[in-house]
Design brief:
heterodimer, A: 98 residues, mainly alpha, Histone, subunit A, two-stranded antiparallel sheet, 3 helices, B: alpha/beta, eight-stranded mixed beta sheet, three-stranded mixed beta sheet, 11 strands, 39% helix, 13% strand, globular, protein biosynthesis (chain A)
């Protein structure tokens, strides 16, 4: 068994997914099957084969450093779940000091 | 002939001649949508007022003497993964339900510049992850050939809309086959352009090194006209190719395979392939030979590892890309009751806002990228990607194009694979190599499978930037088969 339920709970936490117990069980079984299937890539003897991260042989792409039109604050905030003034309003980020 | 049965090229000419108007054509398609979309469920959003306003704008531009392109006034169904500032954009996810983007995708902007009229936004698998539209948060679309079957995916709303004559053209995106597979199972043309040939700016990202916008159409020429209208270099997408490309429209008008070297991929055959699909595929190969092509068998041994490599690379990229859905800047926010931290709100929102397949892929990608597993999974998959590109390079030294069935089976039943992710992934078996290598590939209809009477697709693959070549071959196949059938394959579909 390549993946345990505890590992799936860890992956869910890293992925910022608050999953219930039932979901964790369900996903653990499915991910186990999927990981066994994709592990076939390890059959390929590829010691000295370079990795490809991208189909195009691009390195750095530059553009002129010019000011261009962009969204206004109002436009950028238009889809926000909560806003205040010219800012996104978010739940607390830091733990309160004890 | 009714306006909704005409090709995009015909509609463009008819509108340009003044015999009809963009408004009339748009209205005819809106009427068709009103009549059949209750069954087909191709669209997530239709807004006749906005559509007719666009159409009036095009008619006014023409009346003012503006020089307009061949698709001016032609309506289009637009996949709901491209941002549109006048229509909500959701990627078929609850996490974006009702979101109105503040900007247009480059593809959207170019459709508008070409004078095309957007009929609405089409259904898809959530964030383009799937092969059936069953992963849409808003319910699946149906295959117009058989309403109990899937229309393919992820661009399944787009394929359903065009096959049901709700639109002459549609946009799609292809990350692992998401244009070619839905086109194949609905009897349409579906094209994955060379990666970088069409802009990803404003396309909601799934796997950035693979995502490619492309056309779905009822004819090869229509697909080429649409691809030409929205393609070309875009400074807003740093992976967009800044080089001249051969004319695909000219190629689509000049179908010819005389003397062409065609390679049949040996690995795409055998177990898991439906006999009726293989039978139609072999006939298509014989047809190419009868038209003067030289057919040889080619081996691409690493293609058998493309599927597992893809299901490591694409989930890895998605686990990073979908981090942007953080419940802070746009979209859904759940559980913000003043007591919870930002991290807790984020995790609650994402658990509620994402569907099962998206969650699976994010966790799979997080796993593949974890320290301790990276080399064995993501690292190996990237090496396989190199080997697949080398297989293509070696094959294209011997032949001009490669061919295979587009999909191993015809359209499957709704629900048949919905809770079996690995079975669902097999739908992309033949399409994935071209995503990993970035080359051009098209699916054209090549007949109906004997078992179920459903469409079969022929996939034609060409090297990077040789998009014109697949159009030339596709047009030759289309024309020869239309002669044999006495019309297009889609004419055999049942009336809705």
């Amino acid at each position: 068994m390549p993946i345990t339920r505890d590992e799936v709970a860890h992956l869910a936490r890293l992925s910022r997914l608050a999953l219930g117990d039932d979901e964790l069980d369900h996903f653990a079984a499915q991910l186990d099957v999927i990981i066994s299937a994709v592990a076939r890539v390890q059959e390929v003897a590829a010691e000295d084969i370079p990795a490809t991260s991208h189909a195009l042989p691009l390195t750095n792409v530059f553009r002129p450093d010019e000011v261009r039109p962009c969204l206004t604050a109002d436009q950028a905030l238009a889809g926000a779940p909560a806003a205040e003034g010219d800012r996104f309003r978010v739940p607390r980020i830091l733990e309160e000091e004890s | 002939m009714s306006l909704t049965r005409m090709t995009a090229a015909e509609l463009g000419e008819l509108i340009a001649s003044g015999e009809t108007s963009a408004v009339e054509v748009a209205q005819a398609h809106l009427d068709r949508i009103a009549a059949v979309d209750g069954q087909v469920k191709a669209f997530l959003h239709v807004d006749p007022d906005t559509t007719l306003e666009q159409a009036r704008g095009v008619d006014a531009r023409r009346a003012a003497g503006e020089e307009l392109g061949p698709l001016a006034g032609v309506p289009i169904a637009h996949k709901d993964v491209f941002t549109t500032k006048d229509m909500p954009t959701t990627a078929a996810s609850k996490i974006l339900e009702g979101w109105l983007p503040p900007y247009d995708a480059t593809v959207t902007a170019r459709l508008r510049a070409a004078g095309m009229v957007i009929l609405g936004k089409t259904n898809m698998d959530e964030f383009a992850m799937g092969s059936s539209t069953e992963n849409s948060a808003f319910g699946p679309s149906r295959n117009p050939w058989d309403l109990t079957r899937v229309p393919g995916g992820s661009s399944g709303g787009s394929s359903a809309a065009v096959a049901a004559y709700e639109a002459p053209l549609a946009t799609g995106t292809d990350t692992g086959g998401s244009i070619r597979q839905p086109a194949a199972v609905t009897g349409l043309i579906g094209m994955k352009p060379t990666y970088g040939g069409s802009s990803r700016y404003g396309l909601i990202a799934f796997a950035s090194s693979l995502d490619t916008p492309g056309p779905l159409a009822r004819t090869v020429l229509d697909a080429a006209l649409l691809q030409e209208a929205f393609s070309g270099h875009d400074p807003m997408d740093s992976t967009s190719i800044d080089e001249p490309v051969p004319s695909i429209v000219a190629a689509a008008r000049n179908g010819d395979v005389a003397g062409l070297r065609v390679g049949v991929v040996r690995e795409f055959d055998g177990e898991g392939y439906q006999p009726g699909v293989l039978a139609r595929f072999r006939e298509a190969v014989e047809l190419l030979e009868s038209l003067g092509a030289k057919v040889i068998e080619v081996s691409c041994p690493n293609f058998t590892y493309a599927l597992p490599a893809y299901y490591l690379i694409a989930p890895s990229e998605c686990s990073s890309n979908l981090a942007r859905f953080d419940a802070m800047r746009y979209g859904l926010r759940v559980g913000d009751d003043g007591t919870r931290s930002a991290e807790e709100v984020m995790a609650l929102t994402r658990a509620e806002g994402f569907g099962a397949e998206v969650k699976r892929r994010m966790m799979l990608g997080t796993y593949a990228l974890s320290s301790g597993y990276y080399d064995a999974y993501y690292g190996k998959a990237q090496q396989v990607r190199t080997l697949i590109a080398r297989d293509f390079d070696a094959a294209f030294e011997q032949v001009d194009v490669l061919v295979s069935p587009t999909t191993p089976t015809s359209a499957f039943e709704l629900g048949e694979r919905a809770d079996d992710p690995v079975a669902m992934y097999l739908a992309d078996l033949c399409t994935i190599p071209s995503n990993l290598a970035g080359n051009a590939a098209i699916s054209v209809p090549c007949g109906l499978a004997d078992e179920d009477g459903l469409p079969v697709g022929l996939q034609i693959m060409a090297p990077v930037l040789a998009d014109d070549r697949v159009y030339r071959v596709g047009a030759a196949v289309e024309s020869a088969l239309a002669d044999r059938w006495g019309g297009p394959l889609l004419a055999k579909a049942p009336e809705l």
